[in-house]
Write a structure and sequence with these properties.
The protein is mainly alpha-helical. The protein has one domain. The protein is built from 3 helices and 2 strands. It has a two-stranded antiparallel sheet.
Length: 61
């Protein structure tokens, strides 16, 4: 079981060196998978971030 905390768009943007707006655009377009809390707050699992980084897909980062 993965016990790492999920990323917010802001923390993922900091990790990837992009804007949180870009991360939200990727979420809304389905290029990265995330989930919403309370219908508004986006979160991205650590496993999803690792999957994307391992794929080397520069379009998403």
């Amino acid at each position: 079981m993965n016990t790492q905390k999920p990323f917010s768009p802001e923390t993922l943007a900091e990790r990837w060196g992009c804007s949180s707006r870009h991360v939200r655009t990727l979420l809304k377009s389905g290029k990265i998978k995330g989930f919403q809390l309370g219908g508004k707050l986006w979160r991205i699992s650590a496993a999803e971030v690792e999957r994307i980084e391992a794929s080397g897909d520069n379009e998403t980062q």
